[in-house]
From TrEMBL:
Pfam families, alphabetized: Alpha-amylase
Gene Ontology MF, one: alpha-amylase activity
Organism: Nocardioides eburneiflavus
Name under which the protein is recorded: Alpha-glucosidase
Glycosyl hydrolase family 13 catalytic domain ranges (all copies): 14-427
Gene3D superfamilies xrefs: Glycosidases, Golgi alpha-mannosidase II, Oligo-1,6-glucosidase, Domain 2
CDD domains, sorted: AmyAc_SI_OligoGlu_DGase
InterPro entries hit by this protein: GH, GH13_cat_dom, Glyco_hydro_b, O16G_dom_2
BP GO annotations: oligosaccharide catabolic process
Coiled coil: none
Assigned protein family: Belongs to the glycosyl hydrolase 13 family.
Amino acid sequence: RTDEDWWRTAVVYQVYPRSFADSDGDGIGDLRGLIGRLDHLELLGVDVVWLSPIYPSPQDDAGYDISDYQDVDPAFGTLDDLDELVAALHERGMGLMMDLVVNHTSDEHPWFVASRSSLDDPKRDWYWWRPPRAGMAAGDPGAEPTNWESFFSGSTWELDAASGEYYLHLFSRKQPDLNWENPEVREAVYAMMRWWLDRGVDGFRMDVINLISKDTSLPDGIVHAGVLGDGTPHVMNGPRIHEFLAEMHREVLAGRDRKVLTVGEMPGVTVEEALLFTDPIRAEVDMVFTFEHMGVDHARTKWDLLPFDLVALKTVLGRWQTGLADVGWNSLYWNNHDQPRAVSRFGDDGQWRERSAKLLGTVLHLHRGTPYVYQGEELGMTNHPFGGIEDFQDIESLNHHEQAVGLGADPDDVLASLRSRGRDNARTPMQWDASPHGGFTTGRPWLAVNPNHVEVNAEAATTDEDSVLHHYRRLVRLRHEVPVVALGDFTMLLPQDERVYAFTRALDDEELLVLANFGADPIRADLDLTGWSEAEVLLDNVRGGSDDPRTGRLEPWQAVVLRRT
Ligand code: TEU
């Protein structure tokens, strides 16, 4: 691909390899399993595959704790398998986006092993080491250098008894944060990135990349609950973040013989900051993953559930559309390996599962930006019916359960939150067919397959023209073939309507109108549609509906796209 802007009409598909397809019967997905399933991706028509980590890892955080950035974990295969995947994707006109996890390494990475080995090891300053708080002894309660709480519960500091110093880990204690203030660290990361580009990969999804610049004075955070404080204001979008990303662009991404696609995962990023990160003139990243729309249905923490509020969702997404309308670019997602299944969260995973899954696809893919399809989203896969805590495997969920129950929370309430929002919901194996374990493995799957794989699976969807899968295929094709979908101006309509999501897209003399009924009751959109009576119905998730969608009357969970010129 030489056209510099090919990516503005692209759709990215995220593969979580551990749960995608297992080729050797060990119950864990692998690269050869993925290579064997490329027809599915080609049917969908996606352009790029974002591959979650396949690197050597102790698997403390499901591969986001990396012990060797330039190899493949034997559980997933070999570097030869990865080279074969790159070639196979390129042959089909698709690209490969690797997951770049460089805010932290595994504590088993040789860099950290050296850094920890002694106070004067040359790599000591590759991580954040600090003595106990002034006037306190190592190991004393509260002696940690700051009061910050980890994303995975507990303190963000771990005491290393040998040296009597603490090291920083925003995530698990087996994920020590790299010290990006140290130019040697930055150079080592850039060299590794160039090594992957030389191997033929086409882009990077950058894990929590806005955490790499921190307030080096390491101030305490505000204590909202319990005894630990909120460190996020001191580690998100820190003072040198734009400097580091601009340097990374200069040192790695610029001057290549073809476009390198980048997306920065940025917890806590605002649309104002995203404008700076994605302004092409600034040459930092192409787009960012915001979490703002993922926060409309919970209070301070992801476990404090709130009911879904469509107005809140539209307000956030509308603001991001407006904010990046003229400069910069949006990413668009409902799902990934960290979020519960959208059809269970924002749709209706019971009677209206298929229709509401198609509605969610229509709404997202008709926004301006690059859509990301997470494995199984195109099948309308749902949350899993988890039972007790023994059903869960994700460190984030297990640590939260232990800490919350330990602090006196009702175990049933905590379990209800885990069942609704736990990351394991996104990590149950891809459902390929109705056979045992959904065709994911011939062995015992590392995490149980959803029992509904008997009816929710790729094989059944492929032969059903009305399936969620074929609806997603149509959405991808629309983006490739109808310029107003990728490039048209976005205008939100009915911003305060609690049931109808409505907006237009306009480019030159073409205009689209998207109407979506987020509910199980028929409804009439409160819009004057006289100018749309002759419009073309470009897409409708209800075949043979009783009403003409151009009247604005919408059946339960109906989503339509009208086009007029
Ligand atoms: O996620 C960053 C992150 O912020 C999430 O952990 C989020 O806070 C949580 O899941 C609630 O939504 C990235 C990776 O996507 C995640 O899988 C890793 O666990 C994390 O970074 C550490 O690498």
